[in-house]
Design brief:
The chain is α+β, with helices and mostly antiparallel strands. It has 2 domains: 140 residues, Medium-chain alcohol dehydrogenases, catalytic domain (Quinone Oxidoreductase, Chain A, domain 1); 37 residues, no CATH class. The protein is 18% helix and 30% strand. It contains 4 helices and 11 strands, in the order E-E-E-E-E-H-E-E-E-E-E-E-H-H-H. It has a 5-stranded antiparallel β-sheet with strand order 10-5-7-8-11. The chain has a two-stranded antiparallel sheet with strand order 1-2. Strands 3-4 form a two-stranded antiparallel sheet. The protein starts with 5 loop residues before the first strand and ends with a helix. The relative contact order is 0.16. The N terminus is likely disordered.
Length: 188
């Protein structure tokens, strides 16, 4: 169960729930926006159902990236489809709760991490449950905590892709600008 979402030092768990989005059947709590430029609030939304080749994850940890700020500010509204209420973020760690058709290699109860892999923004991970494609999640190694695992997907994959694109050879000098940030620290 989503216990608390903290942004800076402001716990958002005690925020007013939006009366517009009170789900009657099986519902989850999620942090969502009803429109760009609004602060967002805790909503009761229907539990998402996994589609074919997707799993539903009971989210334990979600991470927030600079990309998510661009989404929340509406900077990408002309580039990517958005659906309201908009639940932000894409990185997650948690436990598989339900399986869609055609899922193999992952079972209910598996501890996983990854990204939702959605082309439509709004079905994010600042929620009790999120669905994700089996191609965008992996079983979480025991050596990684859930917090470490949730911070890895977007930044880690971006770093890996950047290093692979640069194709450094042994003994090459490589300068990583922004090595103290998420992507740069993984690239180092």
């Amino acid at each position: 169960m989503l216990q608390e979402i903290v942004v800076g030092r402001i716990p958002l768990d005690g925020m007013k729930r939006s009366p517009i989005h009170q789900a009657k059947e099986s519902s989850m709590r999620a942090f969502a926006l009803d429109a760009f430029g609004q602060p967002g609030s805790i909503h009761d939304l229907p539990d998402p159902e996994p589609a074919e080749h997707e799993v539903r994850v009971r989210v334990t940890v979600a991470s927030i990236n600079p990309f998510d700020n661009a989404v929340l500010q509406g900077y990408l509204k002309g580039r990517m489809e958005h659906r309201f209420p908009l639940v932000p973020c894409g990185d997650l760690a948690g436990t598989v709760d339900a399986l869609g058709a055609g899922v193999d290699g992952v079972a209910i109860g598996d501890s996983v991490f990854g990204v939702t892999g959605k082309m439509v923004l709004g079905e994010g991970t600042l929620a009790e449950f999120a669905t994700a494609s089996t191609s965008t999640i992996a079983k979480r190694p025991a050596a990684l905590s859930e917090v470490e695992a949730a911070a890895l997907p977007l930044a880690g994959v971006s770093a890996l892709m950047s290093v692979e694109a640069a194709a450094p050879r042994p003994n090459d000098v490589v300068v990583i600008v922004g090595a103290s940030g998420g992507i740069g620290s993984y690239a180092v």
